[in-house]
Amino acid sequence: MKNKIKVYRAMRNMTQEELALQLRVTRRTINSIEGGKYNPSIEVAFRMAKLFAVPVEELFSLDEDE
Fold first, then answer.
1. Which of the residues 1, 33, 36, 64 has an alpha carbon 20 to 30 A from that of 44?
2. pTM as predicted
């Protein structure tokens, strides 16, 4: 799954650690999500969307191969 987390985080001048604290996850989790190594739970995905004030579909999309 592709994501735009890094883009939206950069737009708010947030570090991975700051985002992790707001979402109640670890910095390593944020790093793994941004790197495409881990897909977040639905709950975390919705918290991210709410935090960035965008639809979940704006943050996450399926790769064409999936």
1. 64
2. 0.87
Paired strand residues for 3: 60
User: Nearest-CA neighbor of 49 among 57, 41, 39, 40?
Assistant: 57
Q: DSSP of the chain, one letter per residue?
A: -EE-HHHHHHHTT--HHHHHHHHTS-HHHHHHHHTTS-PPPHHHHHHHHHHHTS-HHHHEE--TT-
Q: Determine the angle formed by the axes of helices 16-23 and 42-52, rounding to 10 degrees.
A: 110
CA 21 centroid distance within chain: 13
pLDDT at position 38 over 70: yes
CB contact at 8 A, 1 and 65: no
